[in-house]
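Model it.
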Amino acid sequence: MKIVVDIKNLALFTGGISAYFKPLMLKWIKTNTEIHFVLLGPKIDLSWLHECKNVELVEIRWPMYLPRTLRHPFYDNILFPKAIKTIESPDFIFTPYHDVLLPKGTPSVMMIHDSCIGDLKTIYPKSIRYYYELMLRRNLRRCLAVFTVSNSSKKAISLRYNLSPEKIHVVPNSFTVHSAIKTKSNITKNSVSIFYPGGADFRKNVKRLVLALGIIKDKGVNVQLKVTGNYLGAWERELKGVEQRLINAVEFLGYIESEEVIHEYANCDLVVYPTLCEGFGRVCLEAMSVGAKLVCSNLPVLNEVSEDYAIYFNPYNIEDIANKILYAIEQPSKSPKLREDYSKEVVENLFLTEIKRYY
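Modeled.
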């Protein structure tokens, strides 16, 4: 049997979909040595698959020669379908996202992680929203099934795209517990450290969080916000128009390794997650694992992941964000909480069970 796996997101990105799917793919390949896996996509370091002899990389050159706005559409609709045709008799195709155009006639499964682009019509630019919605709907007509990452996302996808719930399978994010040494002393009003590791995507709503810092500072609380990711470009766009005194309250950590991220979780006073839409809530899961206080958006999916652990706010209301942060400051410290149903072993076994239905 020959299975083709789309690895575009794994090759281009390190977090998000890549971090979610890499361990699942490794488990899938290692436990099915009788299957020949063809990894199709841009050049990628496959040293993490060095023990697997049943893997072949078919490289598609990423079109850096095109303007940035044209690279994804050209790759998805021209280069990827053309490369699929060069692979002799694939039995099955899997893609961890919904943007590459799936071929007709070959059994396939794709992932839709959330319905955010369709739901947040005023947040995403029309060109981005139109393109990804178009690709999603085209692929829905071609694939056998859809995988997603939460029950909340499954419900939203089913309603938005008029898709039978039986066609949607939930394989959540997993989390491996890391040791984290707490070096920071107890919280004081004189210095409150907030950690936000969710990036500067349109839906992440970081601008309202930064504006909430102004309300908190006006109440006499000295607060510092640490964020991860590249400041140039996305962060500049996200924080455009914010007064300088609030920009000065933000420390841009840049890209940091997962061990450093866990250290920041363990040594901040609060983790705040103001997102407007998510398919899962990995930030919440990571904060809970080290016992960090968690203040986040009152979304169904974050309630699904965090249950009664978090303090919830209305992510569209800056005053509510500020008030819930101030309330959280006064609360006692938390004990770590681990969700067994999100453990690495449970999620990997679930993925293998669900994917085998289709090949």
